[in-house]
């Protein structure tokens, strides 16, 4: 995959020293945390190995001297420490965690931040709870009794985190049943429950990705107090917030039915620019017929932008932007042009009333437009290789 530079683990992480099953691999994603890693390893040393054999794998995308700081601090650790430095930070924080999950050797894996906001003393408890409850995933939650988000800096972050949690739970009521804190970056998962091939991490919310796509069978929670950062600053930015929304949209529209619903909602939202455009153009003195036509293009452009960003983000590569826009606009306008004759047909030939005929025509052209958009704009063109796989799959 990417150019991983596997730094010789300290002390050597070779096959002999990979812990027995029942032990834990602690995966820590780091991005410029040189001021924190020594403290983190200290805290782990104080609270984990006496209760549970462990190894630590840092997955690092830093541009500073974090890998060196880890190597140095690791010399004082009574457990194996490995640094996996990525030259290309594919998938950001979530991508890093997945690399760590793949590299982990033990039965349990605990993922935690590198800035000491997650108390390492909880690592053995997470694993013990998982063993006791027969769970595949154990989430350290700020939102159950005994937990708190004390270290979440500022009212703004708290409000954003609340809203994000609420939205996420509302979008995945079943998959996140029993998970009070899907935004948590601190959790334990059984290695057998991780399915790296279906994961497509994007940014911060790797727990959400795992809970939705890997579908762990039983989930448990342990309360924890989100601490203050030890050193440095949060790496989360507004850009990360937009990435999160894209991630949510991608997760929610993984099936054709969900995509169709998303397509419909985006289409409905297109009325706003459409009507605003109509209002502006007629106010400027344009006749309402050309104004309608132009304003409709505004709605089409709006829909196209949202659909590209939220629904078909991963399926754009096989056609150029103009090609996709042209095809999309053609389908959208064909829908409009075809609707009236279709209504006339339903009324004259099939004797339907104007209202039900219009409703039916709207639904029919909508489904056709959705199917057309999938098939003609975003479906990858078939290559010989694809066909072979398809045949084998049947
Ligand atoms: N490898 C890698 N690559 N690590 C990263 C990257 C990246 O692109 N971005 C951030 N990290 C590391 C940081 O170095 C840190 O160890 C950890 O991921 C969390 O990053 P922070 O920047 O400290 O995140 P936060 O404190 O704002 O957010 C944390 O709490 C949230 C809950 O409010 C994270 O755990 C979030 O996942 C969590 O939702
Ligand atoms: Mn943090």
Automatic annotation (TrEMBL):
Gene Ontology MF terms: dolichyl-phosphate beta-D-mannosyltransferase activity
Main localization, broad class: membrane
Domain GtrA/DPMS transmembrane: 263-377
A GO biological-process term: dolichol-linked oligosaccharide biosynthetic process
Sorted UniProt keywords: Glycosyltransferase, Membrane, Transferase, Transmembrane, Transmembrane helix
Domain Glycosyltransferase 2-like: 25-194
Regions that span the bilayer: 261-281, 287-307, 328-347, 359-379
InterPro entries: DPM1-like, Glyco_trans_2-like, GtrA_DPMS_TM, Nucleotide-diphossugar_trans
Location in or out of the cell: Membrane
UniProt-listed Pfam families: Glycos_transf_2, GtrA_DPMS_TM
A single cellular component GO annotation: membrane
Signal peptide location: none
Membrane topology: Multi-pass membrane protein
Entry-linked CDD domains: DPM1_like
Protein family per UniProt: Belongs to the glycosyltransferase 2 family.
Name listed for the protein in its UniProt record: Glycosyltransferase family 2 protein
Organism of origin: Streptomyces actinomycinicus
């Amino acid at each position: 995959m990417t150019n991983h530079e596997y730094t010789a683990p300290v002390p050597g992480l070779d096959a002999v020293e990979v812990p027995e099953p029942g032990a834990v691999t602690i995966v820590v994603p780091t991005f410029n945390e040189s001021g924190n890693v020594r403290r983190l390893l200290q805290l782990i040393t104080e609270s984990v190995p006496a209760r549970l054999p462990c190894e630590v794998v840092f997955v690092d995308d830093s541009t500073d001297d974090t890998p060196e700081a880890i190597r140095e601090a690791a010399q004082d650790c009574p457990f194996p420490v490995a640094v996996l430095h990525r030259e290309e930070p594919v998938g950001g924080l979530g991508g890093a965690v997945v690399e760590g999950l793949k590299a982990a050797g033990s039965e349990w894996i605990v993922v935690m931040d590198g800035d000491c906001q997650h108390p390492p003393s909880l690592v053995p408890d997470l694993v013990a709870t998982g063993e006791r409850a027969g769970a595949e995933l154990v989430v350290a939650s700020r939102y159950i009794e005994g937990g708190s988000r004390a270290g979440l800096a500022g009212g703004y972050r708290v409000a954003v985190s609340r809203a994000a949690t609420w939205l996420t739970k509302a979008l995945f009521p079943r998959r996140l049943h029993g998970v009070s804190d899907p935004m948590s970056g601190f959790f334990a998962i059984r290695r057998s429950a991780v399915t790296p091939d279906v994961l497509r991490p994007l940014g911060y919310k790797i727990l959400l990705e795992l809970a939705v796509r890997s579908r762990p069978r039983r989930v448990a929670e342990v309360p924890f107090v989100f601490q203050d950062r030890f050193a440095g600053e949060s790496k989360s930015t507004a850009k990360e917030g937009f990435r999160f929304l894209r991630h949510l949209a991608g997760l929610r529209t993984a099936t054709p039915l969900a995509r169709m619903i998303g397509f419909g909602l985006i289409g409905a939202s297109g009325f706003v620019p459409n009507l605003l455009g109509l209002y502006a153009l007629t106010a400027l003195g344009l006749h309402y017929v050309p104004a309608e036509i132009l304003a409709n293009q505004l709605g089409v452009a709006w829909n196209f932008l949202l659909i590209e960003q939220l629904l078909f983000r991963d399926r754009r590569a096989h056609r150029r932007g103009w090609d996709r826009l042209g095809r999309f606009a053609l389908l959208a306008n064909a829908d409009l042009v075809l609707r009236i004759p279709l209504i006339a047909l339903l009324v004259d030939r099939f004797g339907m009333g104007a209202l039900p005929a219009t409703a039916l025509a709207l639904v029919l052209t909508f489904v056709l437009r959705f199917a057309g958009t999938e098939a003609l704009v975003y479906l990858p063109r078939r290559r010989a290789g694809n066909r072979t796989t398809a045949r084998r799959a049947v």
